[in-house]
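Per your request, structure below.
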C-alpha cells in the first residue's frame, strides 16, 4: 500500500470517527428515553423500562463526552472526570447534576425498590433536557476537521 493510500484511509477513518453518525447511539438512546417519559399512566413494567432507558442514556452520553473530549485532546477516564472536564470547558453548567445522575444510575444498578424507582424517574425527567442540550454541544464539538 502506497503512502498516499495510507493517508487517504487515515483521513477517511478520522472523518468517520468524528462524523455526526457516530453520535447516533446517544441520539437513539435519548429518543427512546423521551418516548418512555412521554407515556401517560405508565405501568410498573413501563416505569422499570424507563429507568433502564435512563441508565442506558446516561452511559451513552458520558461515553460520547469522553470520546469528544479525547478528540479535543482532553483525556478523562471516569464519568465523574468526564463531567468535571465538560464543566471546566463550559460545555455543561452544573457538574453536580451530572454527578447526581451518575449516583442514581449506580444505585439502580445495584439495588432496586419502589422509592428508588420513583427517584430515578424524577431524575430521568431532569436528565433528558440537559442530556439533549449536551448532545447538541458534543455534536458541534465532534465535527471538527
Amino acid at each position: 500500500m502506497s503512502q498516499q493510500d495510507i493517508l487517504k484511509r487515515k483521513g477517511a477513518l478520522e472523518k468517520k470517527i468524528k462524523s455526526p453518525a457516530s453520535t447516533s447511539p446517544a441520539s437513539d438512546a435519548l429518543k427512546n428515553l423521551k418516548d418512555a417519559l412521554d407515556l401517560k399512566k405508565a405501568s410498573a413494567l413501563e416505569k422499570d423500562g424507563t429507568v433502564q432507558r435512563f441508565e442506558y442514556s446516561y452511559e451513552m452520553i458520558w461515553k460520547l463526552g469522553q470520546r469528544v473530549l479525547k478528540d479535543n485532546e482532553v483525556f478523562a477516564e471516569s464519568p465523574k472526570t468526564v463531567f468535571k472536564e465538560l464543566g471546566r470547558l463550559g460545555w455543561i453548567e452544573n457538574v453536580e447534576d451530572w454527578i447526581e445522575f451518575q449516583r442514581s444510575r449506580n444505585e439502580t444498578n445495584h439495588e432496586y425498590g419502589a422509592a428508588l424507582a420513583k427517584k430515578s424517574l424524577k431524575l430521568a425527567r431532569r436528565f433528558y433536557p440537559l442530556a439533549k442540550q449536551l448532545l447538541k454541544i458534543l455534536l458541534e464539538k465532534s465535527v471538527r476537521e
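Confidence is low (pLDDT under 50) at residues 12-21.

Regards,
D.
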